[in-house]
Amino acid sequence: MPKDSINQLSQEELIRGIKENERSVMSSLYIEVFPKVKSYIIQNNGDEDQAKDIFQEAFLVAWQKVKAGEFLPQNSTAMQGFLFQVSKNKWLDWLRSSRFKKESSLGAISIEVADFEEEFLLDERLSMLDRAFQQLGESCQELLKLFYFKKMSLDKLAQSFGWTPKTAKNNKYRCMESLRKIVNS
Amino acid sequence: MSKDLHITPLEYELIEAWLDDSLSSEQEKAFQDMEKEDSDWALKVKEVKTLREDLESLLVKNELEKIHEEAFEGSNPRTASFPRWIWAVAASLALILVAWWGFQGGFQDPNQKLFEAYYETDPGLITAMSGTDSYEFDRGMVDFKEGKYQEALALWKPLLEQNPSGDTLLYFVGMANLELQNFQESKEDLQKILSESSSEFEEDAKWYLALIYLKQGELDQAKLLLSDLDKPEAQKLLEEIQKES
User: Fold this and answer.
1) What are the CA-CA distances from residue B135 to residues B33, B175, B176 (Å)?
2) Cα angle vertex B219, ends B216, B224, to 5°?
3) Which CATH architecture has domain A1-106?
4) What CATH class does A121-185 carry?
5) Interface of A with B in 54-83 (CB under 8 A)
6) CB 3.0 to 4.6 Å from A70: which of A65, A80, A170, B17, for a disulfide?
7) Minimal Cα distance from A144: which residue of B?
8) Interface ipTM
């Protein structure tokens, strides 16, 4: 999808694209908004690496909010605005928390940083899950990616692997169980 | 995810259908029964829900990383800055290398150059995991994907003797032979696929066979096959061959 064609998507297409993790929607949204977030963060005491980390975290949050129906973008511009706003809030939170660290080290007032802790937990969980995912066999990784990320149906999955739908279902279960056990071990 | 929960396939299916809001009426009843009867049910639901959501988040995160690399790679100067003289030395070395490549290229057969420019190893198939009758084939595919072509052939050739017309097997035996530069064998394998009435590997077999003909200087045969292919690369290669000849 060319960079500006995301603006031509209807609300329905945009939301479907987000819910189904369509690469083209994800990528054009990223390419459209990241430069703006980057210049905002650089103008506000940050650097490019921080801009990338903050933006990717914000992207994940915004993406999940649309999936969960907590934010309903009317069109692509609204989605871009929302993503920018989440990034901006995250950056301000970060600045506040770093100021908090500085102040508390001088014995000043303590500020609640619950959101930050929650995100830190998610980050930790995702790193742990990533390590577990890497331990799965190549086929399991591929299967889970096709099903949970590319949103391929079990029937299509069965077709592309040359399985019966029942085998596809069993294998998906086995892969998820392996992943769950590695994470819990 | 702390308690060691045992979740059966049926329970998994039920929980996922509930999460997707796609419970059938029978499943809905089963779900309600589980809620009443299984004291761990809420924990199981939470565990599957968290695992699914986190997995999807992780995969989205990995994709974002790829998008960033593709779109903005190089825009971030994380490298240390070197003194100017190092750049001058690097530039001189690069010039020497370019000149050397040019010199080598000047003596290289143009067909060989085109073959190398267009040839890409077939990525192989996704290997099935179990419960299929093609265990040996899958093992060979794992070898193939790891670049162990000789090992793959050792597993596949006996299978091909049992089933000489299996087009998937024939195609990958052909691909392994091609990787090992057994051009004649590879050519015969691919020709056999094309002699069958229809095969899902027909297009790929034509493409690789055309590349072999090109490499061996049999340009008319290569052109014939390429003109029969729809993929843009085939048309591009055809034009380049026509320019060269």
Assistant:
1) 40, 19, 18
2) 125
3) Orthogonal Bundle (1.10)
4) mainly alpha
5) 56, 59-60, 63-64
6) A65
7) B55
8) 0.87
